[in-house]
Design a protein that fits this description.
Distance between the termini: 8 Å
CATH class: Alpha Beta
Shape: globular
Strand content: 15-25%
CATH superfamily: Metallo-dependent phosphatases
Number of strands: 15
Structural class: alpha/beta
Order of helices and strands: EHHEEHEHHEHEEHEHEEEEEEE
Largest sheet: 8 strands, mixed
Helix content: 25-40%
C-alpha cells in the first residue's frame, strides 16, 4: 500500500552553514545538561536504565514546517470526518485551546464523531472530573449533536474506574464497535486488558463480520512507537495479527505525548496522537514515517478510496497531511 505524505518539505541545510554549527553547539550543551539531570534521577531512583536511555536519545521536538489548515473544496468533502484526541487528561489552557480549534473546524463541516483515545482523566480516571475535561470544553460540539466515542487508557483503569468512566461517557463498555453503513467500522479496545479472552473474541468477531470498506481500531497503548514509552510489544503480539488478517487499515493510539505516523506495516498504518494536555520529546525508528512533539489533535477524513490524516494544533496549523489509499485503489 502506497502512502503519500502531502506536506511541503523544507530545503536541506547546507553543510558548513554557521547557523547549523550553532545549532549543533546548542544541542551538545543540552545533551550535557540532560546527562547531569538523568544521572541524578538514576541515583535517586526516579528513573530506570531504559527510561534514562530514551530520555537522552529522544530529542525530536516541534515540527519545523507547518501549513495552514485548508477545508476540502465544495464537492470534494469526505464521507465522514472524525476529530481524534489522545491523552486529554487534565483541564487547562492546552485543553481549552484544542477544544476551541476542534469546534472551529467543525463549523462549516461538522465532525461525525469525537474520538478520545484514553487517559481521559489524570491521575486515576475519576469519572467526577469528566465535566472539567470532556463535557465543558467540548460542550458546544457535543450539544450540536456530534457523537462521543471513547476508550480507556492506563490512567483511567489505574484504580478500577474504567467501566464507570465508560458508562459516564455513554459507552457500552471498555471495548465496543461502531459501524457507519458499509463505509466505516471503528473498534475501540482496552489495551490494559490485552489477555482478556472475551475482548479478543470480540475483536476478531467484529472484524470478521464487518463488510465495511474501512476498518479502524482505537487502543491506548501503541503497538508501534518510537516515543519515550516505546512500542507496546504485548499489544502488538496479541492484536496486530488480527489487524492484518482482517484488513484493518489504520490503528489509532495515544499514551505517548507526541505525534507519530508509521510507514505501512503489513498493510496497516499506526498513528500515535497523545499531545493534547502534555508533550514529550520523541524519536524515530525504521518504521517511522513522521514524528514530532506538539500539542495537537488528528483530523481524520474518510473518502471512498482513501483516508486523509492531518495533525492539527490549537492555531489550526497542520504538520502532517497524509493520504492513505485503499489497498488496490492506486
Amino acid at each position: 500500500m502506497a502512502l503519500i505524505d502531502r506536506r511541503k518539505q523544507s530545503d536541506p541545510e547546507v553543510e558548513g552553514d554557521p547557523r547549523r554549527r550553532r545549532r549543533r553547539a546548542r544541542r551538545r550543551a543540552v545533551l550535557v545538561a540532560l546527562a547531569v539531570v538523568v544521572m541524578a534521577a538514576l541515583a535517586g531512583g526516579l528513573l530506570y536504565g531504559d527510561q534514562a536511555l530514551r530520555f537522552l536519545t529522544h530529542l525530536k521536538g516541534s515540527p519545523t514546517d507547518t501549513i495552514a489548515y485548508e477545508p476540502f473544496p465544495p464537492g470534494g468533502e469526505p464521507t465522514y470526518r472524525l476529530a481524534v484526541l489522545g491523552d486529554i487528561g487534565e483541564p487547562g489552557s492546552r485543553l481549552t485551546a484544542t477544544a476551541r480549534a476542534v469546534a472551529k473546524l467543525s463549523d462549516s463541516d461538522p465532525y461525525d464523531a469525537l474520538l478520545l483515545l484514553g487517559d481521559n482523566v489524570y491521575p486515576a480516571g475519576d469519572p467526577e472530573q469528566l465535566d472539567e475535561v470532556v463535557f465543558e470544553p467540548f460542550g458546544p460540539l457535543l450539544e450540536a449533536g456530534t457523537p462521543l466515542l471513547a476508550i480507556v487508557g492506563n490512567h483511567d483503569v489505574a484504580e478500577g474506574r474504567g467501566d464507570t468512566q465508560m458508562r459516564a461517557l455513554g459507552m457500552p463498555g471498555r471495548w465496543w464497535a461502531e459501524e457507519w453503513g458499509r463505509d466505516l467500522l471503528v473498534v475501540g479496545l482496552d489495551s490494559s486488558d490485552v489477555d482478556n479472552p472475551a475482548q479478543q473474541r470480540f475483536l476478531e468477531r467484529s472484524l470478521a463480520q464487518s463488510t465495511a470498506t474501512w476498518k479502524i481500531v482505537a487502543l491506548h497503548h501503541p503497538p508501534y512507537s518510537a516515543g519515550y514509552q516505546g512500542s507496546s510489544s504485548h499489544v502488538r503480539e496479541v492484536f496486530s495479527p488480527l489487524f492484518e488478517r482482517y484488513g484493518v487499515q489504520l490503528v489509532l493510539s495515544g499514551h505517548e505525548h507526541d505525534y507519530q505516523r508509521s510507514r505501512p506495516i503489513n498493510g496497516v498504518v499506526y498513528v500515535v496522537t497523545g499531545g493534547v494536555a502534555r508533550t514529550r520529546r520523541t524519536g524515530e525508528d525504521d518504521f517511522t514515517a513522521v514524528s514530532f512533539s506538539w500539542h495537537h489533535f488528528v483530523d481524520l477524513s474518510v473518502f471512498g478510496d482513501h483516508l486523509v490524516v492531518r495533525a492539527v494544533n490549537q492555531d489550526r496549523r497542520v504538520a502532517d497531511d497524509a493520504k492513505i489509499p485503499l489497498s488496490g485503489a492506486g
